[in-house]
Fold this sequence. Notes:
Blueprint: E1 2-4, E2 18-21, E3 27-31, E4 50-52, H1 58-74, H2 80-101, H3 105-124, H4 128-136, H5 141-159, H6 165-176, H7 187-190, H8 199-206, H9 208-216, H10 224-232, H11 253-268, H12 280-290, H13 297-309
Antiparallel strand pairs: 1-4, 2-3
Helix pairs in contact: 1-2, 1-3, 2-3, 3-5, 3-6, 4-5, 5-6, 5-11, 5-13, 6-10, 6-11, 9-10, 10-11, 11-12
Amino acid sequence: MAVSRDEFIPGTQAPVDIFLKLSEKNFVMILKEGAKINFDQMHFPERAEFLFVRKADYHKCVGKALTVAGIVLDSDKISTEKKTAVLSKAADSIFKEIEHLGFDHQALEHSKIISKSIQSLVDDKPDLSFVINLMANLSDDLIRHSMMVSAISVIIARSMKWTMNTNLEKLALGALLHDVGMKELPDDILEMPRHAMNREQAAIYESHVYRGVEILRTMPSISDDIIAIVLEHHENAPGQGYPRRIRDFKMNPFARVVALADCFAEVVMKSVNNPNPKNAAAAVGFIEVTLGQPFHKPAFLGLKAALQQA
């Protein structure tokens, strides 16, 4: 399984056996598990951007990335921007873990660590505009969007006076995983603006909610609330969303918050669907005036209050 060289921290011990790819079917081991990582002293091509590990060992690589991320996040000497970048790399590893190894107990525990870390960042810097700028500079589109939706969902919930930590943790985790089904969509669909899709292409795109539910349902311990977040994050108050076109009084309370956070994140982030992102205040105005505020009213008032507190 391919792993970016950047995921291996120089000076630390290799979490697993690491291989260099010589040809399509030939690999050579360059480091044994436990050996000190120092690629600068090793003679292999600079173009070798990716190294390889056994597929069964990838869980250990993710665990190592989370350990490093935990050390970075606990440090008072490291900037919030740097912490977010490290957290993004760890989140990317988890999404790869789910894509290649399936959603199992280890992937769930790793996801919980990331979502709790996002909560901690929000608690330290609850300013809505700051969080947007923080996440907007991340590289991978899916990771950037997922982390931003998780952070904004927590900000909205806190503004709505949600105080139970178990609920905030569940919300942050469900929001982080809300688009996990996107990993199963073909690239040509993901790279196409939604307004340019025909009916068949739109149906494939919208299937990501069901695909996400199928992925998470492989874990018996995943809560019904998190399944509901994944299933309902494109529903809205007047019942004009998808996939079931239900109104907000039938929506899961967690999903009501994530649906708004998801829309808000799309409006403030540059993407194939939004080449001209708006700032936080303009995004709230766009949702309220142009879209006609189609979301759960208490959640939207919580978002507005969070903006005014910034």
